[in-house]
Amino acid sequence: MDREFFSQDASVNWEELLFETGRILNGDNAELEARWMIEEVSGVKDSDDYKEQAKPIQLKRLNSLIERRVAGEPLQYVLGRWQFRELDLFVDNRVLIPRPETEMLVGYALEECAIKKRDLDATQSLNVVDLGCGSGAIGLSIVRETQNVSVWCTDISEGAISVARANLAGLGMAGQRVSISRGSWFEALPEEMLGKFDIIISNPPYIGDSEELPLEVSEWEPSSSLRSGPLGTEDLSFLLNNSIEWLSAEGQLILELAPMQADAMVKEAKNLNFREVQLQHDLTGRERVLMAKKPL
Fold first, then answer.
1. What residues contact residue 203 under an 8 Å CB cut-off, 6+ apart?
2. Are 126 and 198 in contact (CB under 8 A)?
3. Can you say whether the dihedral through the CA atoms of 182, 187, 192, 193 is positive or negative?
4. By the 8 A CB rule, do 91 and 76 touch?
5. Which one-letter DSSP state was computed for residue 53?
């Protein structure tokens, strides 16, 4: 049975809702989370816009959101959406929660798109694939933020594909440049795209099976999107080894990884004769992104 933090027939104003919700949540970011929840159920962002008493249906939904958050469910799933760069993404527990590190990954991809476009005429477009797309955060952001790019988004999870399609629906005209298909890594792609991808990008699972994670992550986010195997580098290695035939002559592979994996993955990329192998940093200055150009 739903807990009733606020009575359905209560007369509660915006400030009282904010204070009491924050008190119930009682965490480091309680006030901010309370504000987001109240904005979600009321449709307004401050008390100046909240002229009427909270409606019963609003309080019923707020009770539900609070109950889920108090139970430990991540705020992003509770709200059902999360901001990622320029996108307001639908998210639930079928996909990973988009994170700032991955926003940086997209930024590096957009820089690479800009470089590659210098050699194209106005009628040509770049081909990009987001492998293991989850919510579609990476691929849809690339389409949203640049022109003359066609993007393929793939994932093995039927649930993730459903979430990505829902987010694609909100993209507008830019969504016409996106293809979404289900399958394991490159198996989801048409054979005619062999050797034609200018950028292959992925935020693959890169956590080892025995590596501990915060409970809010391990108990709620999909394990298959987090854990790669005993080493944590299994999917990274697979992508390094299997991306070569799918990349165009000057194609770029861009992978998110854990800082502690960076040196080993650089060595592996060089052993496979990738060119211009380099590491890029996240917002905290840690090595988080591997970039490598197709071998000759």
1. 96, 102, 105, 132, 134, 138, 255, 256
2. yes
3. positive
4. yes
5. P
